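Teaching note: in complex prediction, the entire set of molecules is handled at once rather than each chain in isolation. The prompt given to students was simply: 'Predict the structure of this complex.' The entities are:
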Amino acid sequence: MAESSQTVMDDEADDGGLRRSITGKQLFFYTLGDVLGSGIYVLIGLVAAAVGGAFWIAFAVGVTIAAITGTAYAELVTKYPQAAGAALYVNKAFRNKVLTFLITICFLSASFAAAGALADGFSAYFATVWEGPPALLVTLGFIAVLTVINFIGITESVVINMVMAFIEIAGLAIVLFIAIWFIAQGNADFSVLVDFETEGDGIGDKGLAILAGVALSFFAMTGFENTANVAEETIEPHKNFPPALIGGMITAGVIYVLVSMAAALTVPTDTLAESEAALLEVVERGILPFVDTGTMSTLFSIIAMIAITNTTLVAVVTQPRILYGMANEDIVPGMFAKIHPTRRSPWVGLLFSAGVVAALLVVGTYAPRVEGSTLIERLSLVTVLFLLFIYSLVIISCLKLRGQDEDERTYHANTPLLFVGLVGNIAIFAWSVYDDPTSLIWCAGLVAVGVVLFLVEYFFGTQSRPPGVERGDPAAANEEGV
Amino acid sequence: MHVVVATDGSQQSLRAAKQLKSFADPTKITDISVIAVIRPLAAVAFADDLSPAASRKADLEAGGFRKAAESSVATVAAVFDGWGPKVHKKIRSGSPANEIIKAAGQLHAGLVVVAAGGRGISDVVLVGSTAQRVQHYAPCPVLVVRPSPKRPKK
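The expected output is the structure of the full assembly:
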């Protein structure tokens, strides 16, 4: 660079030479939208079935533990504002390649399972609007459409994200309004809120029932870890990230607890438990006299589908991103680093991810039912298992990295709370494994996908390309071509 | 005149920069701003296809899309080394077309240079490309550099 003195890298002062774009407010709605879409529309019936009328307690416990985990993320993001998330933190804390690989694969697997569960939840609401096509077809079509959307790249508008978050809040506000109306009419029986589906009446039985619900309710909080992806592009992450992330999670948590109380008050618990689109039951009670229940139900189903779509999109975006990162590190075959020349989308990773999710859905539909578990229950439990493992390690990493890389701007999570969160994560993990060991087979299957990719790269990745050059690399292709 | 040269990390954007240099008169250009736009919510926020593979090898800690954008901008900026005009490097974040148009306005640019893909199915059938949107809404003339048919498409 002979003339390098002429070339200047403009800084922030000069009309945004290195401008970052995501504001604290946008991040708040991104978190809220991502979290709200996932669980409550999809899983509230299953949680009600596990706990009984008091299932709001399960949501309260679940969101509390998740929010504590969120504080650990917030602390780590302010220290390391890069896009890599959990894998980066664990790598910093443990410096163990195998563990980092495992975390990355777990994160990827969780994302696969979550997309599958959400697709199934989508099909449940879809069926309430149009009962024609079989559920499997709807879920596969759903994943295919999201993959195309992701390829085109129209998911990238921050404004659309905010609109989606508002629509999701509107849907839940409808549920709350119906409940308030119901209470105002004097029809509500509040004793249902302390009603447990247990054989015994001891505190221990109730505790176990709640624990069963917590594992499922935890799925409702998932998605927040994806906000670490945009840390790099957040304006002043030290200042904006912690309040936006934790604020978003607490807001989602409060909405969840209120909505689950509303559902419990207005709909009999066993109706909720049997319904695949449980929140719709609240609307279908026809409690509001001044609107047509049929129209309202259709509207609500559409809102629910939009909410689920929003969260699934984030999962579908995350998968190829993780694969892309791993391909650049030569952990998985280099073809996952292939970027479409004009669309700039990692199309190989996108197709592969869609294939894995589709396979999960097909296997889940035709695999023999174990203990009557539905596809959605299975996949959400698998997601939760992976995430609990990741969350536990993130909290440990947070504690282990205390005192390193800190400056006066670093956010500090409350240490005793972190220990509570860690114990909570481990307790739910242990109980879930004990209660439903079949999920471990699914987890192993998903981890195996990652291991196979690694082995392919390990044994075949270095052949047919010069040392130091990645497979699928355009430069390498040119050299070979000449 | 201030010229904005946009790069998305693709080989075609590097060709676009070279195209500009091949015919433009450097004495008439005072400043060149090389701009990369990071797409925070995209699956891959920025992919750098320009730097040699060895330097691109992301290790988990050093990596990051901002780094990829910086190195692409540096590669494209190097095209204009010693040519005359003052070269600025800029990285923005958001929707590529919007940010390029905004930058052109703020810099009072006299020309925007963008690369376009082929006329492949993905550009015709799917929602319009960045180059198309810049072409429609830029406050100044736009040079859209398409891949020449002789070159093998990547």
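Point out the following to students. The first helix of chain A runs from residue 24 to 51. Chain A touches chain B through 69 residues (CB under 8 Å).
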